[in-house]
What we know:
Shape: globular
CATH topology of the largest domain: I/LWEQ domain
Low-confidence stretches: 1-16
Radius of gyration: 22 Å
Oligomer: single chain
Number of domains: 2
Largest sheet: none
Amino acid sequence: xxxxxxxxxxxxxxxxxxxxxxxxxxxxxxxxxxxxxxxxxxxxxxxxxxxxxxxxxxxxxxxxxxxxxxxxxxxxxxxxxxxxxxxxxxxxxxxxxxxxxxxxxxxxxxxxxxxxxxxxxxxxxxxxxxxxxxxxxxxxxxxxxxxxxxxxxxxxxxxxxxxxxxxxxxxxxxxxxxxxxxxxxxxxxxxxxxxxxxxxxxxxxxxxxxxxxxxxxxxxxxxxxxxxxxxxxxxxxxxxxxxxxxxxxxxxxxxxxxxxxxxxxxxxxxxxxxxxxxxxxxxxxxxxxxxxxxxxxxxxxxxxxxxxxxxxxxxxxxxxxxxxxxxxxxxxxxxxxxxxxxxxxxxxxxxxxxxxxxxxxxxxxxxxxxxxxxxxxxxxxxx
Length: 383
């Protein structure tokens, strides 16, 4: 019979302990950091707009994965470490500078921008690890298990900047693989997080990404006359962005916070990694690709679309809905079958754009997302 006075093994303790909230509200300094992320999303959208083949989309995905992995790491960081001290603020500004250098380097990241991008990523990673050691929770110890993976990943990206194409490809793939492998080892289970802060912080990032789709309307309309066609196209693009906002902020964000609040630390950290790490990576990637598609449809609403343009609008919507299903199913927020079906139906709009043009495709995408919300809303009322 187990002696109740003996301490539990670490694995059991991590699995059953639930820590009170450390940081309950998002700080203004975190919002300031998000301003850099706004620029980063714009740079990534430009990378998508300039894509000429599947390899260019894969490159963009690799770049975004290295950005999102460490950026989301800062969400975990600020859920554990307060930013009221001058030393902490100065370190955050240093990390912000690293993120800015990364964003500036994105257009030439597989060329002359590779080394600056790698140096920026290495700086951001070192600041992240250093700040985490100031946490007043078990996360200060847990970062020791994850920091070597992050540093190795950043080192591989930096090394890729010195290697001529196509030999830089294996280094980029290796960098992403190293980061992802740490999650397979369960290294995140030693971290604590504040559900209220964590969910709010990710919601703000989703808003930033959705804001890029609004910016895409403006950049696509640059130089065009404000006529009935432009107004109709812009209104439909805004409606699509609004529908995506509704899928997330129509209650899922609040339910996610309640779900995380009731979980012990180990399980909370695991579900947060999958739902907000991988699920949001797919969602944000979808919004960025969708923004590139919106820019194209606003600029050229009539006439036959290119395969890339038609694919970006449909593929972005499908990718977002796939990530949303991962997010919802992981946290058990509700069924995702209808959203998967809507994502599949979005892909079927590509032939419409190729034959009749981008504007009818955009209208169909809006009808799909609005119809999804209506059907789900009625199901909730009946349930």
